[in-house]
Design a protein that fits this description.
Number of strands of chain A: 12
Largest sheet of chain A: 6 strands, parallel
Oligomer: homodimer
Structural class of chain A: alpha/beta
Largest interface: A-B, 48 and 48 residues
Strand content of chain A: 15-25%
Number of helices of chain A: 13
Shape of chain A: elongated
Distance between the termini of chain A: 63 Å
DNA sequence: GTGAAAGCGCTAACAC
DNA sequence: GTGTTAGCGCTTTCAC
């Protein structure tokens, strides 16, 4: 049975305002009154009604974090976003969009816009137009590079440079048949950028990108990496290195390589992307391109908070958090 | 700029009620009126204010899912809970408690109680008393066995029987120095139950549980399994099997075993618990006790929905979803 | 078919 | 120091 301020007020024999004052630690309340009200509060088990509060003052103190799914990378990121938000007194409402455009749209600016004060979204399927519509009505910060230049705040590492660094690490090892795992028939967003970085690295060494070394996938999960590497090895048994566009693909790849009798890194060196915790425990441990996830989370929350509390419109900003390569045994042996 | 029903009404030249009727697809609205209102709705970009709606009709259509952290098991479970809830038209607000008691209490029945219609919580630190206080004021369903018999709905596989089955699998393989990885100085909750299942299995084969085969941990993460197995091997180099209380511990264990030159499963067979996706991709793939996670999620949401919509108080119920052992190469070779 | 108005619980401006 | 009151946006009788 919900208890309202009014209930407490009548029990304590004071007005609703006095109860409100006590609840909000308003200093100018006579100590005896305060004690009496506090007792009534405790006895009745009063708890503020957030909907009413939000309706009244227009803020909920909550932000939404919309993620396609709870894979390791997004889980680790969510953890950090929650922490960063808590430091600012904000509660995070986490939403799993399933990568569906309709859901992403709804979440980002629609249904929730009157529930949360702002949204951090990692869109998979949302289009630039979707975002355009939303951004004026609701503070929003985008994670990942898919919709760059769309006029909203943006947080993502420089994917091209990072992919290039990962590929160069393999080339520096003397490998010259480096495959790219995670490409797509019609590359877009993140995939396109990582592919570009890979190609830049090759070209800088005067190596011609070779279509037969591109392993396409539908999703970025372990089974996709597994299946793609089996196909790749059938077509190009001479491959000597693998740049995987994320770690899950790499884990699937490690398994496929092992099944095909390839030693890692002796026969094939493997680099992943994201540096999820699992990298340190795979066999062999996976060298991975590590985005500074804490910096990503911090930047996203920071930008969003600024935007939420801004009086005037803010120019869209772009933040590129740092990254670094974490070398492990999948490339440098043990 | 938020648009209210009133705004739409004045633009469409009708009353607020008519707009509401259109928004709610109330059938008895003259088509011409409906069209005019719909146009105003679209032009102004009306979106309902959820706080107001909730304030008015007492329900938010949201449930909270409170998890200690976003580890693989909880992430997979969260995915399934979101899906199960969506099927019932509910939105899930996911909360990361960090395993802190104060946070768990707040979430479970406190701060959020007026924001969500019910809560599914997987408590790590919450005590029985905490739950007692909350359960009458707020629909709640608990995941995991830690607080059994506390008078609230409960969903958890039979941990004792499941742990026993996992241990028996190792014994059936002819191993007789089976260590338990994941025990604690002061076993409680899940740990106590899994330990008991392990001991039951041993005793049924007339094997005396041996303290030196208990590998204690602080947390259930990969590094804890890794460190504990290094200690275990130092003390008991003759161990020939490992029952790990969760998969992450097992992944840490696999790595430690490999570093110590133990072959899996030839020298040491390893069983995990939870059957997270990673099991199929570890090297070797990990045999694991697989709770039916979809059934857990389904049961949790189902119980909660019943409770939320109940007129009369419901007796606390306990649901034990099925589980099964998923044999893989970490015990049965390849 | 549509309109007017009360009231959900809260906050804040304004009285006293 | 404390009380009164308007009104946030919505739903829902109850009139018309």
């Amino acid at each position: 049975m919900p208890v309202s301020l009014k209930d407490v007020a009548s029990v304590a024999g004071v007005s609703i305002k006095t109860v409100s004052n006590v609840v909000h630690d308003y200093p100018f309340v006579r100590p005896t009154t305060r004690a009496r009200v506090q007792k009534a509060l405790d006895d009745l088990g009063y708890r503020p009604n957030f909907s009413a509060r939000r309706l009244r003052n227009g803020r909920s103190g909550m932000i939404a974090l919309s993620l396609p799914e709870f894979t390791p990378y997004f889980s680790e990121l969510a953890d950090l976003v929650v922490v960063a938000a808590e430091e600012r007194g904000l509660t995070v409402l986490i939403d799993r969009s399933g990568g569906e455009r309709s859901h992403e749209r709804r979440v980002a600016g629609g249904i929730r816009s009157n529930l949360v004060d702002g949204t951090i979204a990692s869109p998979l399927a949302m289009t630039a137009e979707d975002v355009e519509i939303l951004r004026d009505s609701h503070p929003i910060v985008l994670l990942g590079e898919r919709l760059s230049h769309v006029g909203v705040d943006h947080v993502a590492i420089d994917s091209v440079a990072a992919a290039r660094a990962a590929t160069e690490h393999l080339l520096d090892l003397g490998r010259n048949r480096v495959a790219a795992l995670g490409t797509a028939r019609r590359p877009a967003g993140t995939v396109a950028l990582r592919q570009r970085g890979y190609e830049h690295a090759l070209r800088a060494r005067r190596i011609r990108p070779d279509r037969s070394l591109y392993a396409d996938v539908d999703l970025f999960h372990r089974p996709d990496g597994y299946a793609a590497v089996h196909r790749l090895l059938a077509a190009r048994p001479d491959v000597d290195a693998l740049f995987c566009f994320n770690d899950l693909l790499a884990f699937g790849a490690l398994r496929a390589l092992r099944e095909c009798g390839r030693r890692v890194p002796d026969d094939v060196a493997v680099v992943g992307f994201d540096d999820v915790e699992e990298c340190a425990y795979s066999i062999p441990p996976l060298t991975s391109l590590a985005p500074d996830k804490a910096a990503v989370a911090e930047a996203a929350v920071g930008l969003l908070v600024q935007r939420m509390s801004a009086e005037l419109p803010i120019e869209p900003r772009e933040v590129f958090p740092p990254y670094r390569l974490m070398p492990r045994e999948s490339t440098i042996g043990s």
